[in-house]
Amino acid sequence: MSEPNEDRSEAPMEIQTELEQLHTQCLSLLMKSQKSDTPADGTFRQHLWNAAQELDLLLDELHIPQGLDLEKGHDPAMAQILYDFVVWRYFMPHPTDDPGDILATGFTPEESNLGVFYQFGRWFATWNRLDEETDRAEVKAQVLLVITREKDGGIVFNEV
Question: What is the pTM (predicted TM-score) of this model?
Fold first, then answer.
C-alpha cells in the first residue's frame, strides 16, 4: 500500500488550496449578504450559496482520505490525516441544506480540545462542545465519534 499522503487527493495541492480560498470567500460573502433583504440580494445570495455548495461537495471529495487502512493500528501519519479530515468536516464552515444558511462552529479545534486516537481496534475523534451550556454533565458536553470506512471507500463518523 502506498503512503497515506500520496492518495489524499487527485488535485494538485495548490489547486486544492485555491479552491479552499474560493470556498471561504463565497461563504464570507454569503454571511455579509445576509444583512440586507432586497430581492436582488436574495438572488445574489442564492447564487453564492449554490457556488459554495458545489465547492463544498468538490472539496469534501478532495479531503476524504483515500487508501487508508483503518485497521492497521496507531500510526501518527494516519492520525494526522484523520485529524485534518475531522477539522474539515466539523470545524470549517459549510453551507447547509437550506439555501443561504451556513453551519459554522465558531470554535477552533484547539479551543475544543480536538483529539484523534486509536484504541480498542478503532479510530476515534473527540472534542468538547463549547457551544453547549456549560452546566451540563461532562459526558454530554463532549463529542465522541467512531471513524469507519464505507464499502465505497468513504469515511463515516458515528456518534457514540
Answer: 0.78
